Amino acid sequence: MSPLSNNSLFLNYHRNPLPEYMARGLLVSLSTDDPLQFHFTKEPLMEEYSIATQVWKLSPTDMCELARNSVLMSGFEHEIKQYWIGPNYTKDGVAGNDIKRTNVPNIRVAFRHETLLDELSNIFRRPEDKEET
């Protein structure tokens, strides 16, 4: 998401779904969009992070999670991702989190993973299983 671009074109900051998406555990990241048109500094991505922090009162952990998500979703080669977020980044849950590189606490990663597994369990439960609960 690019909050500055979205705000300029069609979506007020306070209507932007980024905080709700994060609260639900969706894999979201920040990006830039037309930096020459919407940004005022030489570091447009840092500007997006700064605006997001101010507008949505994001914590340092939130910011680290956004940065980790950005690397996970990027088109970087495997070796680059290993360098930035750890050699085991492809593993699920806490096993894939290198807290020394990501600064995302294991408890946050564990919560996200457990929530995902619970959601998938609900989605793929057979109809006869649903009637029993």
Automatic annotation (TrEMBL):
Annotated GO CC locations: cytosol
Molecular functions per Gene Ontology: AMP deaminase activity; metal ion binding
Pathway: Purine metabolism; IMP biosynthesis via salvage pathway; IMP from AMP: step 1/1
Required co-factors: Zn(2+)
Keywords: Hydrolase, Metal-binding, Zinc
Catalytic class of the enzyme: hydrolase
Gene Ontology biological-process entries: AMP metabolic process; IMP salvage
Domain of life, source organism: Eukaryota
E.C. number: 3.5.4.6
Family matches, as PANTHER family: AMP DEAMINASE (PTHR11359:SF0)
UniProt protein name: AMP deaminase
Organism listed in the record: Penaeus vannamei
Lineage of producing organism: Eukaryota, Metazoa, Ecdysozoa, Arthropoda, Crustacea
